[in-house]
Amino acid sequence: MLKQLLMLGLLIALPAIAATPNVGEQAPDFALGTPDGQQVSLHSLTAKGKTVLVVLRGYPGYQCPYCQRQVGDFLAHADAFAQAKAQVLLVYPGPRAELSQRAKEFLDKRDLPHNIRLVIDPDYTFTRLYGLRWDASNETAYPSTFIIGQHGIVLFRKISHGHGDRMTANDALAQLSQSQR
To answer: What is the pTM (predicted TM-score) of this model?
Structure first.
């Protein structure tokens, strides 16, 4: 069947879906904007030390309560991440239309500490780069957490294929402490 479609010119080449970086591999660099338009790159964060990269579901048509709970947990532990000399980068994916506004609503007027940033991923550019696009109705990205070392190497990764089973701040801090040895 594939051969017949190719012969008829009905099959087009689809872009390859990027593979999710594994532990020990170089994390692909990217730059995304905050809801207020400031650019943040992975490289700029890892140059300062380890980075905890948390991929949220973003805006799948509503504000995800699991994401809100997870972000609240990370914010409550901001001082512990600062003591561990780690930056936290929250990625909020979704369709481009109104994504900045939806991200601001998600933050619910909370001020982020200096070591935690939220960036938006309009139209899933980052999500596809990292192979995390959850392409189903009312979905955006697989909730995931990566710890990336100072030279951009993935030290830890956890990918959830459901809404729950998220990385907690305490678990991320334990992984950071293990990777210091």
So the answer is: 0.89
The pLDDT score that the predictor gives to residue 109 is 83
CATH of 26-178, one of 3.20.20.120, 3.50.30.50, 3.40.30.10, 3.30.1360.70: 3.40.30.10
| Alpha-carbon separation of residue 148 from 3, 45, 138, 155 (angstroms) | 42, 10, 29, 6
SS3 36: coil
Element (H, E) at 159: strand 154-159
Contact 63, 105 (CB under 8 A): yes
The answer to whether 23 and 133 are in contact (CB under 8 A) is no
| Confidence class for position 153, pLDDT limits 50, 70, 90 | very high
At 52, the pLDDT band (50, 70, 90 cuts) reads: very high
Residue 160 · residue 143 · CB < 8 Å: yes
In whole angstroms, how large is the CA radius of gyration of the chain? 17
According to DSSP, residue 139 is labeled -
Contact 75, 110 (CB under 8 A): yes
| pLDDT of amino acid 180 | 64
- What tokens does 78 get? 């901001």
